[in-house]
Amino acid sequence: MGLYDRDYMREKAQKLARARELLERSYEKPKRRIRIGAGLVGAGWLVILGLLALLFQYVLDMWNNPNQNPALTATAEGMQEVVLKRNRQGHYVVTGRINHQEVVFMLDTGATIVVVPETLAKDLGLVRGTPHTSKTASGVITGYRTMLDSVDIGGIVLRNIRASINPFAPDPQVLLGMSALSRLEFAQQGDILMLRKSYAE
To answer: Which of 21, 23, 24, 166 is the one with CA 20 to 30 A from 82?
Structure first.
């Protein structure tokens, strides 16, 4: 084998090595693209699932509390009026405020006074007053008297409301009892409850 043949073979081997390298690179690029594409598809599915979870939570919240943003209107008789819809469980639940802090009320005409769960009472800065006993669906419990400076239901504001702090209430909802509701007029039509209060009060 001559010098010419060796150079020719070396050149052929180099060309073959370059061709092999180019071929391997062409296979690597699609793999990377597939990995990146699969990552984007996975991220897209995570975003879609996250949005569906948020939508589902919103629907559940609306089923439980269809009155998250109640509107205050004025009647022809010069009354403030808030219209509430009954939830799927048959209760009137509404977002409102105690002492300017947002809470969720469940209207309860069977409750003598407003009942605030103790964990929420701490967040609201309510002071425990004298102890008293109350009959509840769970039996007789000891609660603590307190006063609410203001109760706001969709813009209808009631002041100096007697309430009770319940240390055993697991639910963060406030039972809006008759110590507040007795200051309002209310009328029911089907699944709608209208709360009214005179502007003068």
So the answer is: 166
